[in-house]
Design brief:
0% strand, Ferritin, mainly alpha, 6 helices
């Protein structure tokens, strides 16, 4: 009997310590890190909400660039837009893969609409220009969106307590800024 206690007691202590750490660090709820600006977007925002929004942003970006491919005249700009659409698809898949590591959890119907409204208010999830927009208007929108997406991912990066996850997001920030630079080079007259 004494031999069993020497095994059970340390095991129980280890399990209790792990449960305590999960609850204390917020790992079960996967909330943004303390000090992150995402607390301004709502008290009950979880990282999976940010991933969901990122998936939507990347999908809309992909769709927009595919529309630009049809609308622009210059062959090199068409190639650029097709390339950017491919990058957006890869970014979307990255976030879908991250979401896939968690158990499925539906959005909170009480907090999600308020979160989306706040994100739109901050300009992170803006509606694309209409069908009658000029190429310059489309390009200006694309440049703004790349800037805002980089800003969003930078906030997102700061939300992670783990350094390796911040590094992955920093790479996305760099890629979004590179997209902006490429668009600015293709449309140097747009400020």
């Amino acid at each position: 009997m004494r031999e069993h206690l020497t095994i059970y007691i340390p095991t129980a202590i280890a399990v209790g310590l792990l449960v305590y750490l999960f609850l204390r660090r917020g790992w079960l709820g996967a909330s943004p890190a303390n000090g992150s600006r995402f607390k301004e977007f709502g008290e009950n925002i979880h990282l999976r909400d940010l991933f969901r929004l990122a998936v939507s942003m990347e999908e809309e970006g992909r769709t927009f660039y595919l529309k630009m491919v049809v609308r622009v005249r210059d062959t090199k700009v068409k190639e650029l837009c097709a390339s950017l659409a491919g990058d957006e698809a890869m970014h979307k898949q990255l976030f879908l893969d991250m979401l896939g590591h968690w158990n499925p959890l539906n959005v909170n119907p009480l907090t999600w609409p308020a979160f989306l409204a706040r994100v739109k208010q901050e300009g992170f999830f803006e509606s694309a220009p209409g069908e009658n927009s000029t190429e310059d208007q489309l390009a200006a929108y694309a440049i703004r969106q790349e800037m805002k997406t980089a800003e969003f991912y930078q906030l997102f990066e700061e939300a992670f307590p783990e350094a390796w996850k911040r590094t992955r997001l920093r790479k996305l920030v760099t890629e979004e800024r590179a997209h902006e630079a490429k668009l600015r080079a293709a449309y140097p007259h747009i400020k």
